[in-house]
Amino acid sequence: MKRYIILTPPGGPLRDHRTTRFIADRFAVLAFLFPGPWLLMHRCWWSGLAALAAQGLAGWLADQPGLFWAGTLSSLALSLLIGLEARHMQARNLVRRGWQEEAVLLAPDLVTAEAMFFETLPAPEPFAVPAADWTKISPRKEGPAYGGPALGLFDMGKGR
Questions:
Q1: For residues 19 and 9, is the Cβ–Cβ distance under 8 A?
Q2: For site-directed labelling of 36, which of 50, 64, 80, 122 has its Cα 20 to 30 A away?
Q3: How far apart are the first and last CA of the chain?
Q4: Residue of 20, 2, 24 lying closest to 90 (CA atoms)
């Protein structure tokens, strides 16, 4: 079972909920492999810059004589930490930018999480079509001055 964080954009979701985001709070492999760029790609600016600086420091530390394992293990620990917490950091960043956290669900997959969330929403109001005011509509006038034949068809003199 995965934990899904459901977020809606600032100003509320669209009528069909296209902008509603479901973030699976799980291990992010790409964030483990590329921590700094992954965070920057998901607009976590300060965290991304800090991760890049920490990776650079770990690389420098690994180049120092006798500190290879310290630099390598610190780089691995940083990657593991960001891989585990990347989705949560992404969700917190969206909340800071004005998104609303609507719910947190446990579901086996995304389809089930969407079904569980949308079942709890109230049914949308039916779209009301305004009634036409037939007193304001004038009858169609005949003749070439009012449109004539349509789609390039020739007028056959009101008959065949």
A1: yes
A2: 64
A3: 73
A4: 24
